[in-house]
Structures are given as structure tokens and as C-alpha cells.
Amino acid sequence: MKRIESVFVLGLIIVCSMYLYSAFSLPFGSLSSPGPGLLPTIIGCIGLVMSLAWFIMAYLKGKARAVSGDSTGEKAEKKDLQLRKLLWLVLAIICYIIAFKFVSPLLNTLVVIIVLAKIFGLEGWKRPLIMGVSFSAFIYVVFVMWFKIQF
Fold first, then answer.
1. CB atoms < 10 A from the CB of 20, how many?
2. Distance (Å, rounded) from C-alpha 103 to C-alpha 106?
3. Mean pLDDT by 10 residues, the chain (151 residues)
């Protein structure tokens, strides 16, 4: 694993852990009557699990690269592409947060899922649209139908 990637992923693990720790200070409630800590706890757990998985995958990929003898590393073009994807990801998340005040959360989530799918190279438009609609429908079912929270 490259040093910059390991520092970034370890930083992400620390941020997710701190977020999760602060989410535990909010009342969790129950599934039938959720408190303000339910969603932050779920998001913190998902973020922590994903960043730990990213760390493990990057570590295993680095080990495999070392075993195969590929010591040249990534080319500058590939690094540039990864940096652009990261910058687009950060921009998409910032736009998502800003738009949350002005646009319906379901529509906002639909758009950001489609944009993220395209940023990370999902081919065509059918699968990104299916992903966006599915995720928005899941949010609708959980929060509007199950928890009775109106957007």
C-alpha cells in the first residue's frame, strides 16, 4: 500500500470513529420510535466498516503487487485519473450537502448516486439510474413508510 493511501485511509478510519463516538452521545431511541442518534449511528457504522474494508483491500493489493514483482507502481496518468476522481467525489459530496437545504432528500440522493456511479466509471446510464432509484426508494421505505418521517 502506498504511503499517501494508507495515511488517507487511516485518517478516514479516525474521522469515522470520532463521528461514531459522537453519535453514541445522542439518544438512539428504538426502531419503532427512532431518536436523533439512530441515523448518525448507522452512517458512522457504515463509514467505519467501509473504510476498514478499503484499508484491508489496499493492504492486500499492495502485498499482491509486491509478490508479483511490480515495483514500478502506478503511472502518472493513472495517478492523475485517481486524483480527478477524488476531487469530483469531494465536489459531489459538497454539492449534496448544500443542496440538502433546497432540494428534496430523495431527489438529492437520486442525483448524487447517479453522479457517483458515473465518477467511478459505471458504464452506460441504465445501471446508475437503477442504483439511484433503488437507493432513493430504500430511503423512502425506511424513513417515510417505516419511521413515518416526512421530508
1. 18
2. 8
3. 78 89 86 81 88 84 67 63 80 86 88 90 91 92 85 71
Confidence at residue 34, expressed as pLDDT on a 0 to 100 scale: 81
CB 104 within 8 A of CB 151: yes
- Using alpha carbons only, how large is the chain's radius of gyration in Å? 18
What nine digits make up the cell of 105?
432528500
Using CB atoms within 10 A of its CB, is residue 37 exposed (0-12), middle (13-18) or buried (19+)?
middle
Give the number of residues written for the chain.
151
Biggest CA–CA distance in the chain, Å, is 56
User: Do residues 135 and 96 lie in contact, with contact meaning Cβ atoms separated by under 8 Å?
Assistant: no
pTM across the whole model: 0.55
Give CA–CA dist 14/20, Å, rounded.
10
**Are 114 and 87 in contact, with CB atoms under 8 Å apart?**
no
Cα gap 149→32, rounded to integer Å: 12
pLDDT for position 66: 66
Q: Which cell is 149 given?
A: 418521517
As given in the structure block, the three cell numbers for residue 59 are: 493492504
